[in-house]
């Protein structure tokens, strides 16, 4: 919602509420046409699965006081890299609450977002940086493939705080943080789904209905056989290690990034061993494709 509000041809800082850990970051990275550099807590770089993903997307570490053994002076280098990115018209995305949580209300905002913007403008301006509030509202964040609403608010022009920053830096940072808090409140107000209905399904062509009727059950069975274990394992892992409601989706995501490729590679290797290169190639295609088809077939059946 509100994607048309995103300004074009100017550097932007996207600031979102933070209720679903790593999944929130994935949603910001998926905003169409934005391609931001994401700020994430520095402790994620010690995670063997997360580290390569963070490097791949060009994320930047935030050093938080609440993390044991973390030297917060590392934020000087991170903020400097943010300034350089904005100077190069590269967008930044962050979570000004400073931590993922399960509260129904917004947590008090940290001043990092305002400081990044005002310091960049003071050092390299005028850059014309805008701040875009983003609200992330989950229907049932612990449930696989549940819905999420991404609401983009009106961009905040920090020009008045930029003018004030040179003489009153502290006051300017606090004022801009307060405006950002108001912007986030607007895009997260009325959070929750309250029985919102799904859009009515579009009519399906007769030939496609016939193809689904004939091919659906066999493909579903193949996809189930090849993907049942890697589909279930992330949920089992998540159930055993999650301690708060904002953790299950992240653990499922990370576990799924491992279980599905491992099983598909193993199935492909077995097929190649028993049926040669052609059999291996067929399995490499069939495993993921039939798995997705089976998932869609099951979901459509449940909606009827």
- Overall CATH class of the largest domain: Alpha Beta
CATH T-level topology of the largest domain: Glycerol-3-phosphate (1)-acyltransferase
Order of helices and strands: EHEHEHEHEEHHHH
Strand content: 5-15%
Work out the number of β strands: 6
Average pLDDT over all residues: 87
- In total, how many domains does the architecture comprise? 2
- Widest sheet: strand order? 3-2-4-1-5-6
Helix content: 40-55%
Low-pLDDT sequence parts = none
| Terminal CA distance | 27 Å
Structural class: alpha/beta
Rough outline: elongated
CA-atom Rg in angstroms: 23 Å
State the helix count: 8
Largest sheet: 6 strands, mixed
CATH-derived architecture of the largest domain: 3-Layer(aba) Sandwich
Q: So, the CATH homologous superfamily of the largest domain?
A: Glycerol-3-phosphate (1)-acyltransferase
Note the topology:
Elements: E1 12-16, H1 21-29, E2 37-41, H2 50-57, E3 60-62, H3 74-87, E4 92-94, H4 112-124, E5 130-138, E6 148-152, H5 159-165, H6 169-188, H7 206-241, H8 248-303
Parallel strand pairs: 1-4, 1-5, 2-3, 2-4
Antiparallel strand pairs: 5-6
Structure description:
This protein is of the alpha/beta class and 304 residues long. The chain has two domains: 3-188, Glycerol-3-phosphate (1)-acyltransferase; 206-303, no CATH class. The protein is built from eight helices and six strands, in the order E-H-E-H-E-H-E-H-E-E-H-H-H-H. The chain has helices at 21-29, 50-57, 74-87, 112-124, 159-165, 169-188, 206-241, 248-303, and strands spanning 12-16, 37-41, 60-62, 92-94, 130-138, 148-152. Strands 3-2-4-1-5-6 form a six-stranded mixed sheet, with helices on both faces. Helix 2 (50-57) links the parallel strand 2 (37-41) and strand 3 (60-62). It starts with 11 loop residues before the first strand and ends with a helix. The model has no long low-confidence stretch (mean pLDDT 87).
């Amino acid at each position: 919602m509100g994607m048309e509000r995103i300004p074009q041809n100017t550097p932007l800082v996207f600031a979102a509420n933070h209720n679903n850990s790593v999944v929130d970051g994935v949603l910001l990275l998926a905003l169409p046409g934005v391609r931001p550099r994401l700020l994430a807590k520095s402790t994620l770089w010690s995670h063997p699965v997360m580290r390569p993903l963070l490097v791949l997307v060009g994320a930047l570490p935030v050093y938080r006081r609440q993390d044991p053994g973390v030297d917060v002076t590392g934020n000087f280098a991170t903020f400097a890299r943010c300034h350089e990115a904005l100077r190069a018209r590269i967008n930044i995305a962050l979570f000004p609450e400073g931590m993922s949580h399960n509260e129904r209300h917004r947590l008090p905002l940290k001043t990092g977002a305002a400081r990044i913007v005002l310091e960049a403008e003071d050092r390299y301006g005028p850059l014309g940086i805008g701040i875009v509030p983003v609200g992330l509202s989950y229907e049932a964040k612990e449930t696989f493939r549940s819905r999420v609403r991404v609401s983009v608010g009106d961009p905040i022009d920090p020009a008045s705080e930029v003018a004030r920053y040179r003489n009153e830096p502290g006051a300017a940072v606090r004022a801009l943080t307060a405006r950002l808090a108001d912007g986030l409140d607007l895009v997260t107000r009325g959070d929750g789904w309250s029985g919102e209905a799904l859009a009515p399904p579009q009519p399906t062509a007769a030939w496609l209905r016939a193809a689904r009727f004939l091919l659906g059950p066999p493909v579903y069975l193949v996809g189930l056989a090849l993907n049942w274990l890697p589909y279930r394992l992330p949920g089992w892992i998540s159930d055993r290690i999650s301690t708060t409601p904002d953790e299950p989706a992240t653990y499922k995501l990370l576990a799924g990034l491992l279980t599905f490729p491992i099983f598909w590679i193993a199935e492909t290797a077995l097929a190649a061993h028993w049926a040669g290169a052609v059999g291996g190639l067929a399995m490499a295609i069939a495993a993921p494709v039939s798995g997705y088809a089976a998932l869609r077939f099951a979901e459509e059946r449940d909606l009827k």
